[in-house]
Design brief:
The chain has 12 helices and 5 strands. It is of the alpha/beta class. It has one domain: HUPs (Rossmann fold). A 5-stranded parallel β-sheet has the order 3-2-1-4-5, with helices on both faces. It is globular. The termini are far apart.
Length: 253
């Protein structure tokens, strides 16, 4: 069945409005990275809640200046407030404190460093959500921006981009996100920007070793991609299995 971006957008908008009305909520806080996912989610939120109830946050942390510029393209187009909260000093302070534990090489801390940045960002979003809830007298939610392809292979950080209060594109493939972005007129520079985490210096697909279109094809039919690609996707998902469910001991009654 052909994906209908207009109808899907209307369904998502209805989903958001119903949830907010049912739970007596006010607004939304989300990180604006300057990429398509956050751009599309921002567009959906402004359509559902009104631009006055959406707050975007840029959180540079030894980041590319272009990301902040692209984020502003999105906020300017949709008209919502954009806050810049620079986490570089917080990150550096954390790293300085780490020195008290010992001298670690860059190779040893590489993965920890990469994952620290999104965790600092998520802490920032939840802090601001609580702050604006107090200022406005009504609850603001933190909105997730991960798409279905990323989630399927575990391309997210536990306690960071996996943490949110509501998700709008978690069941949409990359191509579907782009289709909705076209319908919502997300700035083309943002919508077609090569996706990367803004942290490692590599594109998402370079890090994963597979293309998003292949992940989408595999999810629909595992036999639609060649054996090597299928094996890579299975390995990515298997290696991330610990991210999908927290093992919880249940006592015998």
């Amino acid at each position: 069945m052909k994906f209908d971006a207009k109808k899907e957008t209307e369904r998502i908008v209805k989903f958001v409005r119903n949830y907010y009305e049912t739970n007596n909520l006010k607004g939304a806080i989300l990180g604006i990275s300057g990429g398509k996912d956050s751009g599309v989610v921002a567009g959906l939120l402004t359509k559902a809640l009104g631009k006055e109830n959406v707050i975007g946050v840029t959180m540079p942390c030894h980041s590319h200046e272009d990301d902040k510029i692209d984020a502003k393209l999105v906020s300017d187009y949709y008209g919502f407030e954009l806050i810049n909260f620079d986490l570089t000093g917080v990150y550096d302070s954390f790293k300085n404190e780490l020195n008290n534990l010992g001298n670690f090489s860059d190779i040893e801390t590489k993965n920890s460093d990469i994952n620290l940045k999104p965790r600092l960002r998520m802490a920032t979003l939840y802090y601001l959500a609580a702050l604006y809830s107090a200022l406005k007298g009504k609850t603001y939610l933190v909105v997730g921006t991960s798409n279905k392809c990323e989630i399927y292979v575990g391309y997210f950080t536990k306690g960071a981009d996996s943490a949110h209060d509501i998700a709008l594109i978690a069941d949409l493939t990359v191509d579907e996100v782009i289709a909705i972005g076209k319908y919502l007129k997300v700035p083309e520079k943002v919508l077609y920007k090569t996706p990367d985490d803004g942290l490692s210096g590599m594109s998402d697909e370079e890090k994963l070793g597979v293309k998003y279109k292949d992940i989408a094809s595999y999810m629909e039919n595992p036999n639609s991609v060649n054996d090597d690609i299928a094996k890579k996707i299975r390995t990515l998902r298997d290696n991330s299995s610990h991210k999908f469910k927290i093992p919880t001991y249940i006592k015998n009654n």
